[in-house]
Amino acid sequence: MNSRRCRSSWSSPAGGFGVGKTTTVGSISEIRPLTTEAAITEVAAGVDDLSHTPGKTTTTVAMDFGSIAIDPTLKLYLFGTPGQDRFGFIWDDLIEGALGGLVIVDTRRLDDCYAAVDYFEHKDIPFAVAVNAFDGAVEHDLDEVRWALDISDHVPLVVFDARSTGSVRDALLVVLDVALSRAESARTV
Amino acid sequence: MAVGGPVPPDAAGDGWATPERGGRPSAIRPFLLTAGRVSGGGKAPPIPIETQVVSTSDGLSVLRSLTFEHHDIAAACRRPQSVAELAARLRLHLNVVRVLAEDLCNAGHLAVYVPNARTAQDLSVLRRVIDGFRAVPDSRGSLRDTS
User: Fold this and answer.
1) Chain A closest CA to B27's CA: distance in Å?
2) Is the pTM of this model over 0.80?
3) Taking Cα atoms as reference points, which of B45, B46, B98 lies closest to residue B69?
4) What is the ipTM of this complex?
């Protein structure tokens, strides 16, 4: 085996615009987050509702990502994508081989992440929902958030600070715990 | 543990230091570079974006004969990296890079290592990732690349 080969997997924080995806990725990544563009191709065009913009055939969206070397042969990628359902085509692209997802919530704009929560539930991907506490403040209590987003009881809901490496680490560990227990129970069945 | 991820650019011009050629990317439509192809031309699904790509010795030996984006990709892939990193560094559209990387792979200039999708359910991998995360300090400090 080529010694330079890296195995890789990733986790994808998702949330609405401006809820701290880039900050989250930047807090935990070992590299300065990079940005790439993904666009609707002809295959995915049906996913996006382009009816409001007749004549427009492509939509491009920036996707931030960072990485962490777990050990010399295992590297984890983190991708941050917008959470609105019109960007669902990107999630499909990312979901194959994903360890899990973290849906980042701004309690002032709960609507923006509803689609992401829905998506992860339907795709049966391990995920957790993390409320980004801007300046330590969360405008709703967690029970209200869980109710408003219709999050199942088995889905962890945490408060975190996107600017803090330790806080982001702990939020992602919650996702990884979900993934691990799921993999363990799949093995014993 | 090796400090992960790419290191700052070397003088070989691997894309970090090279801003977009010819100005803003809107100068040409992205898929003009691929003659309109949106994936490698086969029926296979597009390669995952974390797929690792690295130049082969064959690719590096013919580097001078490669042109434009093919050349840039082969040059940048002296160091293994993901398709996503490659796209970001060369400021190319992600799906364009996928197509061009597959071209280079078919020509033997690039080795493409598609990750195993089952990794996500692999207990030993998950435990390694968890252990790796637990070792992440509360603050990253100066580890970040500041290029």
Assistant:
1) 15
2) no
3) B98
4) 0.79
